[in-house]
Amino acid sequence: MQTVQEQWNTKTGLAVSALAVLAMALPPHVVAQEQGIDVTLLGTGDPVPRVDRFGPAILVEAAEYQLLFDAGRGVTQRLVQSGYSLSDIDVVFITHFHSDHLSGLPDLWLSGWLPPPWGQRSEPMRMVGPEGLSNILDGFRQAFDPDIQIRLVDEQLPPRGIEFDLREYSEDGVVFDEEGVTVTAFAVDHGQYIKPSYGYRVDYGGRSVVLSGDTRFDENLIEAARGADVIIHEVAAAREEMLAFDERIQLILDHHTTPEEAGIVFDRVSPKLALYSHLTLLSSPDSPEVTVEELIQRTRTNYSGRLLVGEDLMRLEIGESVGVYRFPY
Known about the structure:
It is built from 9 helices and 17 strands.
């Protein structure tokens, strides 16, 4: 993959590429680093069914592992679009149980079991998530059992490929540790009634990336993210007129992190790159959503480091430096 030289405007945080495009070359899984961490933003949106930002999902590649964090709407399409088979995913990690983080999971599970080129997964699908995830997976199995039974007989699909291999946890700590790849879960504050809710940190080869999950400003996240190369953080914002339009808007914002608060997080963590994903940008016919430039400017009140607003299929290569590539690669 061709390296792109970027000039960074520290006043706005907007990247100005020296080339007409930010990246081009082989499919991402062909050029994955041997000792670094690669990250692909498969979905950077929220529950709103928009076509430019699919539901929350982040692919992290380290060593020989493809680790998926959350499985929002459209995750299967984004995986195929970026050159992966659905059965390439080694482990799926879930942050919490809001539907926008889970709605793509049945599709990934069922379609990844189908014959090539989409699969064929012949071993149980490995899952890691907070206590309570087993109930959701049991519900999936019950809901889709007629389809499963038909395909077992009619298409002779491998029975083990439709099973789950689940690890649940109920406290902070390491939840995955294989071949030098460590994934640590840490609790975050998504609101009084939205529990459990976790973020994750991935470490490999001296590199690290932190995924905030859904959270308000949280000291536990800051502590977990110390020393990380990259932090990928959620954000929520709305214009003042939206708050007057509907009092429920403030209830939504109260469960998330504002750009100003995220700037404090980034300043205290001091990563090589801070990046927004899972954007909750509330709007109405009379109040357009906050722009990317406004998000950057509001974050800049508290943070002056390297900063980007994520896009679907954006790819990061975390090594000595952090390379950023936009689709098509």
